[in-house]
Amino acid sequence: MKILIANKSHASCAEIICNTIEESAKVRGTGIARRTPEYIINKMEKGNAVIALDGEKFAGFCYIETWSHDKYVANSGLIVHPDFRNQGLAKEIKNVIFEHSRTKYPEAKIFGITTGLAVMKINYDLGYQPVTFSELTDDESFWKGCQTCKNYDVLTRTDHKMCLCTGMLYDPAKKRETKKVEKPKSKFNEKAFQRLKHIKQTLFYKKEKAEK
């Protein structure tokens, strides 16, 4: 298995990447922003993506998005082909795209929003911290990407301040300060994130029923 910085030579994989992302979103019941093969190829040509290959067979993918004039970076579209799941590949891809993001955009804050506990743990282990949505980019084009999600009404009702997703942020400036103090790193508390997700689900679904 090889995980590489993608380039235009991998353009033939764009169609299967888009299909795999879409099928995964359907299974999970989420609305990941739809991307076209042309969009994926553009990311490859700019060196803003990584691809995992088993020989010549597509195994996984992730790409970089930039916002607010490169002040914020998101590692988006993380996907593993069904034939290669449950092998730790998602974490390996995430590690590579994270380091690539830090190298290419060293001063940018790297962020993401997700409901998946597995992704939250991977992010936490990389140094991301849970934050409020107000600490994420205010670039409207980013939030438009949430329009295909079934929970988009929750985001709009809260004026983009809260949703079922959890916001996580890696701030290189704060990371440097933390290293100076040498604070011991705490473990990822999965139960705490599960409780937070349950509380938000209960809160928003109750409010939704009350409004009907």
From TrEMBL:
N-acetyltransferase domain: residues covered: 1-149
Cited Gene3D superfamilies: 3.40.630.30
GO molecular function, one term: acyltransferase activity, transferring groups other than amino-acyl groups
SUPFAM superfamilies: Acyl-CoA N-acyltransferases (Nat)
InterPro entries: Acyl_CoA_acyltransferase, GNAT_dom
Organism domain of life: Bacteria
Protein name: GNAT family N-acetyltransferase
